[in-house]
Design a protein that fits this description.
30% helix, 15 helices, 566 residues, 7-stranded mixed beta sheet, binds zinc ion, globular, single chain, alpha/beta
Length: 566
């Protein structure tokens, strides 16, 4: 709970604080701030700046959501830097769009930096290049007043890092996304000895991943998936296609190895997959001579000679799998007896899109294998036993669960208390938490929210255009054009356009006729001398049209009345 408001001049002095601009109460849009100094002169560090995706189809025309960063934008001269934990979209996907508002140096390890640069070349347009400072794995460096150490963890992309944030008032461990996996396929396992050493040094607060806090036990290893994939691909008779999260380079290796083991060639489909492979070859996560064919070469290969690796595991309508399923892919066609493997998990909110594609593939005669049939996917996040192990290593004074929906955060908080953590803070986006000195507490609140990427523009989620589109999508629009004579009088003749409104009512009367009657009747009912009052006529007609359509249809469309000079 917030404390009593402070009296003017009652500056509590030097404080170490934390807040989330996104990522708490949701899985996505991660953006965290650490601050040090008195409230009037704080220096800030940002960790991650990610996006999220809309759930369902409530926001027409919007496919990306970003955190509202106005709080730190207003203090950007005090923002010492932006450090990235890893290159997943929910952690770095908002950088290209929002960096111009922040203009702080960006710190990233080589793979994350290379991927950010590759994305910038593709999507950055005419922006000035981002000031990326590459930092080595396991390195220690300072950003303003913050002394940072990267600690290697395992996850589902190369180079995931936990970050130790050391300050004059204490140390926070920001875990980022992590799991325990002795054989992660790419990169080292989670660096337990550094975490134990940090725990011995003393950790004030641990800000930790909650994604799988409801799941018992431990997550299987990436190596188990590789073995399962190899066995299935070896047994296949005809074409095999595999869809994965493009950023899972260990999985790309596993599919490539499985293809080689079965005497098949790897074919790659989808731009994001090509970008990932190029960046991985350049940074050493795939061998420099990694062999694969572009999708255009598939026609030279017999069905039993090929494994196609494709994008679109989440049902994205323009990605390779969706186009293959619809029979619209320019190069790749799957048919009777071919095998499609979803080596992925369907993210909540995407079930319908993925289900539609899977139904279409079955209609084509494909055999389907998903993570409910075999071990085709493992999570990149810690289950309960892994979380417990982390708490035993780090033994923080305070725990702050993040990266989860409310139910994940609550389960994580309970687990942390049971693990012996004395202070467990359940917070929301925007809560400013004092980590030190003294007991942890929410001491203030920062403005937070969501921005929509709407075409090339960013708009607030509560601003007009998207709200209007929702209304349009629900009930269409009626446009009425009225002629205003030279003497200023508005006549009853109208031009009427209906869009998204049924053509006739239940009795077959054309809707156009009903609207015309409503317009003419309304204008006829206004005394002649008042028909010069444009606003009066416009409003009367607008109301009459909406209620006429509602009587006929049961829904009220948007209505617009235009006055045209004669
Ligand atoms: Zn991640
Ligand atoms: Zn994440």
């Amino acid at each position: 709970m917030p404390q009593e408001p402070r009296a003017v001049g009652d500056d509590p002095g030097d404080e170490f604080v934390f807040l989330a601009l996104g990522g708490v109460g949701e899985i996505g849009m991660n953006c965290y701030l650490y601050g040090i100094g008195p409230a009037s002169a704080r220096q800030w560090l940002m960790i991650d700046l990610g996006i999220t995706f809309p759930e369902g189809e409530n926001d027409p025309g919007i496919d990306v959501i970003l955190p509202d960063v106005r709080f730190i934008e207003a203090e950007r001269s005090a923002l010492a830097g932006i450090v990235l934990t890893h290159a997943h979209e929910d952690h770095f996907g908002a950088l290209i769009d929002l960096w111009p508002r922040l203009r702080a140096p960006i710190y990233a390890t080589p793979f994350t930096a290379a991927l950010l640069k590759a994305k910038f070349v593709e999507f950055g347009g005419r922006q000035a290049p981002l000031p990326i400072r590459e930092v080595a794995l396991n390195s220690r460096f300072t950003v303003g007043p913050f002394d940072l150490e990267l600690i290697a963890v395992a996850h589902s992309i190369p180079e995931p890092n936990a970050i130790a944030v050391r300050t004059r008032l204490g140390t926070a461990l920001h875990t980022g996304d992590w799991k325990l996996d002795a054989t992660p396929g790419v990169g080292p396992p989670t660096d337990a000895s550094r975490l134990v050493a940090l725990g011995q040094e003393g950790v004030t607060a641990m800000v930790c991943d909650s994604t799988n806090a409801l799941r018992e036990g431990r997550s299987p290893s990436e190596r188990d998936v590789a073995q399962a994939l190899a066995a299935i691909i070896k047994g296949a008779k005809r074409r095999v296609a595999v869809t994965i999260f493009a950023s899972n380079i260990a999985r790309i290796r596993a599919v490539a190895d499985a293809a080689r083991g079965a005497g098949r060639q790897l074919v790659v489909a989808g731009r994001a997959m090509h970008r990932m492979i190029q960046v991985s070859m350049a940074t050493g996560y795939l061998p420099a001579d990694f062999k694969y064919h572009d999708q255009g070469h598939i026609s030279y290969l017999a069905p039993d000679e090929v494994v196609v690796l494709c994008t679109g595991s989440q049902g994205e309508p323009r990605a390779a799998v969706a186009r293959i399923a619809e029979g619209e892919h320019p190069d790749i066609a799957l048919a009777d007896g071919d095998l499609m493997i979803f080596s992925s998990r369907t993210i909540p909110g995407n079930e319908r899109g993925v289900g539609r594609i899977q139904n279409r593939l079955i209609d084509l005669g494909c055999e389907l294998i998903t993570d409910s049939d075999a071990l085709m996917h493992v999570t990149g996040h810690p289950r309960r036993d892994e979380l417990q192990e982390m708490y035993a290593w780090v033994r923080p004074r305070m725990a702050i669960p993040v990266h989860g929906e409310a139910r994940h955060l609550a389960a994580h908080a309970k687990l942390a208390r049971a693990a012996g953590v004395g202070e467990v803070l359940s917070i929301r986006n925007g809560d400013i938490v004092r980590l030190a000195p003294g007991a942890g507490a929410v001491i203030d609140e920062a403005p937070v929210g969501r921005l929509f990427r709407d075409g090339e523009l960013l708009v607030g989620s509560e601003e007009g255009p998207v709200r209007e589109r929702r209304a349009l999508a629900a009930a269409g629009i009626v446009i009425v054009g009225l002629l205003r004579s030279r003497r200023g009088e508005i006549g009853p003749e109208a031009e009427i356009v209906l869009d998204g409104v049924p053509a006739a009512d239940g009795q077959g009367t054309p809707m156009l006729e009903l609207v015309r009657d409503a317009v003419e009747g309304t204008i006829a009912g206004i005394p002649r001398d008042r028909r010069r009052d444009g606003e009066l006529v416009r409003e009367a007609v607008r109301r009459a049209v909406r209620s006429a359509v509602e009587d006929a249809w049961g829904k009220r469309p948007i209505a617009k009345v235009l006055l045209i000079k004669g």
